[in-house]
Amino acid sequence: MRTMESTNHNKNARVLSCAPVLNFLRPTNIDLRANLRQARVSKTKPSMKFFFDLFPILLFFVAYKIHGIYTATAVAIAATFAQIAWVWWRRRRVDTMLWVSLVLISVFGGATLFLHDPLFIKWKPTVLYWLFAVVLLLADLLFGRNLIAAMMRHQIKLPASIWRRLNLSWAGFFTLMGGLNLFVAYRFSEAAWVNFKLFGFLGIMLVFVLLQALMLAKYVEEGERS
């Protein structure tokens, strides 16, 4: 009986140790350390948190299908303001990168509405993803801070070389995602870009996160045996 309980405990430990990758490294979760702090104090179910993060993107998608790109852009801006207002009301604090997201959607979305040019809003995801990449790289190169390690080291122990590889892989991934967004925006129709913005990005992100989780599981198992 004790053997079965020990086996189940080890399996649960492996799942929990990989869970931070799935829970925090999503395209809409901008401030990695802030998401960690929020997860410690929040009683919100993970599924509700996921849909809350996707709130502006989902509304953008629905509004586009009904009224087109300009209405969708205005809805996304309003939804982001509402999202920040809700966070402020609940926590009396808004994470820095949520403000950055608001600035980007306001600037690029505002340019699309003012100049009546959809190209600006299409550039917004690329700028956001490239910003992620720059922050991850510069924090490591200039300040010696591995942000991925800072977020996850309380959950799993890894060699310094693996933390660096993980940080570089995410920086590279965000760089490629930004380029892929531009490729779809310039080479395909507006409707195809909107579909890709929701389903394509999430699908690619999920595959990448699962690959990262499989890589981390190896070190979790080694830690259990040691």
What characteristics describe this protein?
85% helix; mainly alpha; 226 residues
Q: Estimate percent helicity.
A: over 70%
Class by SSE composition: mainly alpha
Largest sheet geometry: none
How many beta strands in the DSSP annotation?
Answer: 0
Low-confidence stretches: 2-44
Quick one: overall form?
globular
Q: Topology as H/E string? A: HHHHHHHHHH
Cα-to-Cα separation, first versus last residue: 23 Å
What's the multimeric state?
A: single chain
Strand content: under 5%
Total helical elements: 10
Radius of gyration: 19 Å
Mean pLDDT: 79
What does this structure look like?
- With 226 residues, the protein is mainly α.
- The chain is 85% helix and 0% strand.
- It contains ten helices and no strands.
- The chain has helices spanning 2-24, 32-41, 46-53, 55-67, 69-91, 96-115, 119-143, 147-152, 160-187, 190-225.
- Helix 5 packs antiparallel against helix 6 (96-115).
- It is globular.
- It starts with a helix and ends with a helix.
- Mean pLDDT is 79; it is low at 2-44.
Topology record:
Blueprint: H1 2-24, H2 32-41, H3 46-53, H4 55-67, H5 69-91, H6 96-115, H7 119-143, H8 147-152, H9 160-187, H10 190-225
Helix pairs in contact: 1-10, 4-5, 4-10, 5-6, 6-7, 7-9, 9-10
Task: Describe the structure concisely.
Helices cover 85% and strands 0% of the residues. By secondary structure, the chain is mainly α. Helix 1 packs antiparallel against helix 10 (190-225) and helix 5 (69-91) runs antiparallel to helix 6 (96-115).
